[in-house]
Amino acid sequence: MHLQSYLKERCDSGGISAAEMGVMLALAAAAIAITALIRRDGIDADLGAETGDANSDGDTQKALDVRAEALILSHLKESDAAYLLSEEQPTPIALPRQTAPLIVAVDPLDGSSNIAVNVTVGTIFSLMPWDGNLPRPCRGRDQLGAGFFTYGAQTTLILAFASDARPQCFVLDEDKGHFIALGAEVEIAATTKEYAINAAYAQHWHAPIQQWKTQVLADAYSMRWVGSLVADAWRIFRRGGVFLYPADARAGMEAGRLRLVYEANPIAFLVEKAGGLAVNGGENILDLTPQELHERTPLLFGSADEMKILIALHKELDA
Ligand code: AFP
Questions:
Q1: Catalytic pick among 88, 194, 248, 306
Q2: Which residue's alpha carbon is at the smallest distance from atom 2 of ligand 1?
Q3: What CATH number was assigned to the domain covering residues 3-181?
Q4: Which fold has domain 194-317?
Q5: Model-level pTM greater than 0.90?
Q6: Whose CA is nearest to atom 3 of ligand 1?
Q7: Domain ranges of the chain
Q8: Secondary structure in 3-state letters for 254-318
């Protein structure tokens, strides 16, 4: 089934609004344009080149960060979104339809340090309600929908709306220019023998992660770390596992590295819909109230049984 047909069925059945369908189609069109950009210009232009600028939080911007955001913005302008909250912008961007009912938050290009070495990157998005007041990000649990695209060997999409029981996955047919559903709804296996963490920071981990790592080493788990959240997340949705980017003792990592509003919340929304768990350690990500657009949070998510072990360790050992 094509994405358009899938969304029209959901809209006709009352599962999503026409505004949510329109915004999702706009984001899919932007993702198709970003795919073409990477496939075409990735040969000529150095899309991994730094622009010399930094985003609102000091992260160096890459050419593809800027061009991906521009494509998302141009497509959303024709949709029922009133504001865009972007990792690349310090404040919300007002869109033409100021009476539209939705706010969209995006990480336009997650994993951009991997562009120059052809590792999968992606676009993470969150659909939130707008009440007409200041465009503030909502709690993760109050999102209307969320998902992410990956740009790798295939361009893929995983998506869920508030009324869905499970997320749905799609793959882009690049010849025909549309996303096709991958069939079965997505469910993360409750148990796993695979984890993702950047072990280079082991000396800085706090007690709960140190103790958990000792256990998984003893149980001979396998490890994967792509260095691209969307790539690690897509693998976990497809074959299970856990992903950990915890807070650690390094300066500036008191709240970890990843962002609550446009990275952790969309991923956590999908993870819970798929039967997994997503926490900052001892608290559910979806229950956190964002205080600031670019605030960071520790993010641990994936197979429920493994996550329950991690949560218990944080409750027992966190200072
Ligand atoms: P970049 O967008 O700078 O490549 O960062 C990617 C990321 O935010 C996330 O996608 C990865 O999981 C994580 O950072 C990798 O962080 P480390 O480089 O510290 O392992």
A1: 88
A2: 111
A3: 3.30.540.10
A4: D-Maltodextrin-Binding Protein; domain 2 (3.40.190)
A5: yes
A6: 113
A7: 3-181, 194-317
A8: CCCCCEHHHHHHHHHHHHHHCCCEEECCCCEHHHCCCCCCCCECCEEEECHHHHHHHHHHHHHHC
Q: Each residue's pLDDT tens digit in the chain (319 positions)? A: 999 999 999 999 999 999 999 999 999 999 999 999 988 876 555 666 667 776 656 666 778 888 999 999 999 999 999 999 999 899 999 999 999 999 999 999 999 888 888 899 999 999 999 989 889 999 999 999 999 999 999 999 999 999 999 999 999 999 999 999 998 889 999 999 999 999 999 999 999 999 999 999 889 999 999 999 999 999 999 999 999 999 999 999 999 999 999 999 999 999 999 999 999 999 999 999 999 999 999 999 999 999 999 999 999 998 5
Choosing from 59, 185, 187, 295, which is the catalytic residue? 59
Among 56, 110, 151, name the best residue to mutate to test ligand 1's pocket (greatest count of ligand atoms within 8 A of Cβ): 110
Residues with CB under 6 A from ligand 1: 59, 110-114, 198, 227-229, 257-258
